Automatic annotation (TrEMBL):
Record field: catalytic activity: [phosphate](n) + ATP = [phosphate](n+1) + ADP
Family: Belongs to the polyphosphate kinase 1 (PPK1) family.
Cofactor: Mg(2+)
A molecular-function term among this protein's GO annotations: metal ion binding
Gene expressing this chain: ppk
Name of the protein: Polyphosphate kinase
PANTHER family linked: POLYPHOSPHATE KINASE
GO cellular component entries: polyphosphate kinase complex
Amino acid sequence: MLTKTKDSDYPMAPSEVQDSVEDDTPSNQTIVTPPIPDDIDLDDPILYLSRELTWLAFNRRVLREAEDPRNPLLERIKFLAIVSNNLDEFFMKRIGGLKQQIAAGVHTPSLDGRTPLQQLNECQSAVRGFIREQQRIYGELMLALDEYDIRIARHADLQEDARERLREHFRANIFPMLTPLAMDPAHPFPFISNLTLNLLVTLRYPGGNEVYMARVKVPVNKDVSKRLISVDGTHTYVTLEDLIVNNLDMLFPGMEIVSCALFRITRNAIVEPDVEAANDLLEMIESELRERHFAPIVRLEVQPGMEPVHRGMLAAELGLNEEEDVIEAEGMMALSNLFEIASIDRPELHDKTHRPVDHPLLANDRRNIFHIIRENGPILLQHPYQPFSTSVERFLRTASEDPKVLAIKMTLYRTSAGAILDSLIQAARNGKQVAVLVELKARFDEAANIKWARRLEAEGIHVNYGVMGLKTHSKLIFVVRRDYSQLRRYYHIGTGNYHSGTAKLYTDLGMLGCDEDIGQDLTELFNYLTGYSPPPSYRKILAAPYNLKRAIIDKINREIEHHKREDNGLIQMKMNALEDPDITRALYKASRAGVQVDLIIRDTCRFRPGLPGISERARVVSIVGRFLEHARIIYFRNGGDEEYYIGSADMMRRNLDSRVEVHAPVENPELRQELRLILDVQFADSRSAWDMDANGDYTQRTPEDDSKKGAQETLIGVAEKRLAAAAKHKEKKVRSRLLSHFQWRLRDKNL
């Protein structure tokens, strides 16, 4: 028996909006959906939820993790910081994009029937309620931290000797970095950087009446100062801005400080580069980065109590609507800096440390990894349950050192300094042909990717920037090796980036293999990425923007036909987002025909399950846990001839139509069992899962027994058991037994 926690402040269907945007108070009432006509057109906007609002609803689920007392205290702080970071990105990308559309005079409704202006109004309304909830939870967590002698204190509340020591710290380490900028007719309003903290200071000469104004940038920077400054090495902290405010007499000696208030701006991250003016793609992206620095401002956050005239002045100078675009931030502004608190070394306040365990086939076999793949068949990797270093990095490192490897080709969307780049460079130095496609347009990673690209080019590696007009989002490593008297192609196909940091935080899948047909497909794909024309077809892989969407829709339609004959149609998909209208429409069609449609969608989801006569045989589940769900799995029962795919693409229009993406079939029976186990465990989760209803509301599953594990904790245990069993040569039996166990649990009415 499960109790439920409702995520009730959820977006409404277009027909239900009415005047709701005028009231930004979160609703605690379930939305009443109008009845769905039997003959409804599958293009009707009422069937589709808002992309922006469903994304906000996902972050409300993450915020719930910050509130949930079942989570250790510092993990709750971490979730609060994540939500703040996500909200910044939402304003930079989604709000910024909507404002661009409105400025361009776009009135065309989106798939869910909302114009850009309607979307903007509803998003702003939802965000206000979201922020109030965020600040409430922040206050509760600060009280909880205080019980463990962890606190963010006011400078004024510290003992005098502590304040003196902080003043010396300020004099030596902060004061030299401060640059007050006057604002008067002789000093125009200064440039304000994106997401920086700033102090608006008003002051006057002693005995004078005229008030002067200055801006002081708070220098939060890893090379200058953290946001939170420890008091005497303890876990009592003061904010950097509080320290500055209480030492302004150093900055403005002899002046009387009249007022001081904190503010922060957010700029639009969507900048259209001047394609015609750029000589090449690298130059164009560098130009875009420069333009983003000066991009239009979409949000102003101010400290409560700021003088109304100052608030109005800032809004006017920044080109904002004071009523719509200015947000008062109660408590601490820029809560993403709470990662500094979340990283405190107090094991009892964190989740149990997770240590990935090696894949059973790789753990105790130190042979050349290509021999292992060739002799054992494909290997399915599951991160972060299995280490990135002993699997993917080992694969690439071996390729760089193996004298029989002739060529390495790879796509890089996001990466980090370290083993991946070092192996590519070593391969080039060892005389191998190395070609790397670096995606320069990876949002917020453009500068890093430019740096990596130039470093690789300096080592003589062939660096390509992809296909004009398309973003390359696929996750591929392709190795050509001379095995005996023939060339054999080895590969890694993944769902996540080649980034050692995120591989510890995101749940992703990867497949190592040497299938001849997939190898030939990847040969042709890389020839296209570095050359020109795409192949007319592929043997096994599904690749966007060419055949991926069409193939998925065809397979959905095929499942409908199987269901008509056998009455057992089943489609299961796990992904980050479902936004593409054609895929959503096809899933409605399948569900309407009686096919069971099971979806695990992390965030954005336009599909509405449980609609009478439309999607009664469908369910949507969202998993929120200690790791960010990032893997993509697609399954079709196909009349008993089952199909599984893993790959890089979410079911979003941009991914399917404007990106190079790859999904590959998983044909090995043992690897299919592993994928089946993942799906069954997540659908059976009674701790971390949220169920969407027909209205678009999410309800959290909460077991009566708090000792129940979530899907991620369960899969940690599965990985550990598999490795332990491998030493006893029982791994196949354990996998089969685990699969049977979770299939039995799925039939349990209590789940």
